[in-house]
Amino acid sequence: MAEFVEKRCEDMIPELEQMKRIKLFDENEIQEIAKKLKDHEYTIHRHTKRKEDYLKYIKYQMKLLKLVKQRREKFGNTQKKSDIDYSIVNKVNLLYKEAISRFQDDLRFWIAYIEFCKHVNYHSNIDRMIPRMLKIHQDKPKCWHIAARWQIEERKNIQRAKEYLLTGLRFHPESELLFSKIFQLLLNEAESATNTSAELKNSSASASTNDEEIPLAIKQATVIYRQAFKRIKDIDFIINLLNIAKKYKNTKKLQDEIVGDMIKEYSHKPQMWDTMARRELEGLTYDPEDNSNAMEVDTTELASLRERISYCEQVFQAAVKKIKTETMWSMYIDCLLEINKDMTSLPNYKRKLLKSALMQGHQAKKLQEDYYVYWIEMLENDKKDENSQSKRYEVLCNATEALPNSIKLWCAKLKYLFNSDQEELAFSEFNKAIKILGSKALPLWRMKLLYIQVKSPNKVEEFFKNAVQQDEAISREMKPDYIKWLVVTKGIQMARHVYNELSLQPPVCLELHKEMAALELIQPEICKQNARRPHEVAALQFGKNNTEVWIKYIVFEMKYGDPLKVSNIYQRAVKTLNPVDADNFISKYSLIKANPETIESLS
Fold first, then answer.
1. Which of 57, 393, 493, 534 is the most buried (most CB within 10 A)?
2. What average pLDDT does this structure show over 88-92?
3. Cα angle 63-95-11, degrees, rounded to a multiple of 5
4. How is 345-393 classified by DSSP, letter by letter?
5. pLDDT given at position 158
6. pLDDT at 204
7. What is the DSSP-derived secondary structure letter of residue 254?
């Protein structure tokens, strides 16, 4: 192996010498490049071949090629391109071929090689590679799609692309990818043929929709659709085909067939109704020849935006009566929300339909949280309606009743009551909410605190005393705030007294100790005994698995307390902490000892 690698490396010497001679790289850079190339050669020629080694080598060669191009641009140097740039490209080409030969089952190499060949204009290599890839990976629909796309985009050979896709469908008769691509390709072909024919004829006769005059490619697309409909039972896939078809001319008959099949096969699916309603909005009416009344709505010809919106709404009304699910209601309201984004025309009509749908969705108990929030905000911003505020509170009550576990909705309700100074009712609703939400009610506690601080400062202490008695999630957040408030309003002595009580009351709270320690250090005169206490209590309560409390304790003694106590605290920490955390603590302590300046960042 060594002899073979050395031979390969020797073959690279002329290329490296040319790089050096035309001053793309200096001596040190050339040596580094040579070393990297040699290392990669050894890795790919090991006894056990690995994909990753080839990928890394290819990546390095491509980075080298990019760097060469950057240096050429920088120095304005275009010399010896065939000896350098093309040599690297050929090397990458050989690496890909070797990798593909060794790891034929890995599709990544095939796809990456095709992209590489596109990049360097090795198109003939792709033409030879694609049949090989299909022979080995014919079990993967993606490969047939890649082959067809190559013929369409680069070779402009539509017939060959169709052959690839149709052959692929013989191997994969249930492939959504291949069906959708051949369907779209045929419709593209039909449109191109129609445009060409129109240019040639340029006649004044109106286009006929007789079956004989429908372009052949559309007839073929219809056959493909029918096969797809038989084999693939997926409403989303059928809707995708319908959306493709509506982009092309002369496809109304095809679209009507797809729609008719959807109505017969998927009338129990919300996506079908959503699609039909949105087509009504676009003016794409469905008028089946058999006068079927499956949609249960009038489908007369539409003329105006108001009519299109009205027919869309009628389809959704029929839908929510047939499919009584949250998903169906969400699709209905989402569509109306989109309609309401543009208020340049029919604003009152659009808003009326939306409000009506929201109310109906609520009554059906199928409204999601976000729709209630939007409804509430809509009423809040409705300045024209004098009754909008009373309606808003009614919706808020309906919302919290329908979704009692929604924090957003309770917050919106309390915000309304606090802003309208309905204190007694607000406090009553607050008590109801915290019983339901429990540990999730922290935003409500904070909202009530802000209100009391502004409106009733004399009730703040009573609020805190109640809050710190709640479960851990609430108490843990409120204890530090309580201490901070006491220092500001009643002084450090009262804060110390309350801290001594709170620090021992379960649930214990590390943030409380941190806050008290920080408050002690901002006093005009630092009392070491009082400032030490939060660190000591924190170490007792959290010292088994928290290295930070011990580090903070040590830093405090070194900066403000008694440095002689540090050794004792260190010994306590090592004995108290579990083994893993003890090792972590020792490492941190060693850093402080070695570099005392880090104390500032830790204090």
1. 534
2. 93
3. 85
4. S-HHHHHHHHHHHHHHHHHTT---HHHHHHHHHHHHT--S-TTHHHHHH
5. 94
6. 45
7. H
Look at residues 362, 372, 454 and name the one whose alpha carbon lies nearest to residue 410.
372
Report the b/e string of 280-300 with b at 16+ CB within 10 A.
Answer: bbeebbbeeeeeeebbebebe
DSSP state letter for 439: G
Give this prediction's pTM.
0.82
Q: Which of 292, 297, 285, 340 is nearest to 321 (CA)?
A: 297
Element (H, E) at 407: helix 407-419
Task: Tell me how far the alpha carbon of residue 13 is from its chain's centroid.
Answer: 49
**Token digits for 290?**
């058999």
Q: Name residue, tokens 């690995």.
A: 50
Cβ(77)–Cβ(28) under 8 Å?
A: no
Tokens of 451: 């209100």
Q: Tell me how far apart the alpha carbons of residues 362 and 397 are, in angstroms, rounded to a whole number.
A: 12
Tokens encoding 396: 């808020």
- Distance between terminal CA atoms of the chain? 60
- Which tens digits make up the pLDDT trace of 480-520? 999 999 999 999 999 999 999 999 998 899 999 999 999 99
Joined together, the tokens standing for residue 72 give 């050429």
Angstrom distance (rounded) from CA 360 to CA 335: 15
Look at residue 587 and give its three-state secondary structure: helix
Q: Which two tokens mark 471?
A: 């479960």
- Classify residue 329 as exposed, middle or buried by CB count within 10 Å of its CB (0-12, 13-18, 19+): buried
SS3 of 144, please? Answer: helix
What is the rounded CA–CA span in Å between residue 476 and residue 98? 63
